[in-house]
From TrEMBL:
Protein name (Swiss-Prot/TrEMBL): Uncharacterized protein
Length: 199
């Protein structure tokens, strides 16, 4: 676990109420089922003055949302960098977790092992890990992906369609989300044929 020593001081509820989402703070790095005796960089989810009478809500750089009562001695509290303060341990946020979905044409176990070996060679044996692996045979076809309003009027033409992506593999559609108020329409891919006469 990579941590760094940061000089900081604990804030009172009154001091936190003067902060906003743009201010850098530190909150407990403990997550559900994983008690960590250190802090994580974070920011308030809204202006501190909006949390009067309730707990402050902070989001860490790791995406964890935490409800905090700064004056509660049993909690880690909210800290801010201060050279006159005390040293605390802060988790470094240098790592990035990638969830990869790879399409391997004519893929077999040998080609998957080669990909895994190449990734480990590039980033290090202790860095690249297989957490879960779903090897599924997928057809090597392409589809056209459209977006349509979820509440479309009946008997309307397809003019309200918004072509979101061309030549997309069906398996990739699983990892996309439509815009708010829109739904995906997946159709077999049709090559665009330009039959404009040329001279």
């Amino acid at each position: 676990m990579n941590t760094e020593k940061v000089t900081a001081r604990r804030l009172t509820a009154g001091e936190v109420s003067e902060l906003g989402p743009q201010d850098d703070i530190f909150v407990s790095a403990a997550t559900d089922g994983l008690p960590l005796d250190c802090y994580a960089p974070a920011f308030l989810t809204g202006p501190g003055k909006n949390f009067e009478g309730g707990s402050f809500i902070a989001r860490t750089v790791f995406g964890e949302e935490i409800h905090i009562l700064p004056d509660n001695a049993e909690e880690g509290g909210i800290w801010v960098a201060d050279k006159a303060g005390e040293e605390i341990e802060v988790l470094q946020s240098a790592g990035v977790l990638l969830n990869l979905a790879l399409f391997v044409p004519n893929g077999n176990q040998e080609s998957l092992d080669s990909l895994y070996s190449a990734a480990r060679d590039a980033f290090g044996v202790g860095i690249v890990q297989r957490w879960s692996e779903e090897a599924v045979a997928v057809p090597d076809v392409k589809v056209d992906l459209y977006e349509e309003p979820t509440r479309g009027r009946k008997n309307t033409s397809s003019q309200n369609r918004d072509r979101r992506a061309l030549d997309i593999y069906p398996t990739r559609v699983r990892f996309l989300e439509p815009s708010d108020g829109w739904k995906f329409i997946v159709e077999p891919h049709k090559e665009i044929v330009d039959d404009t006469p040329t001279i």
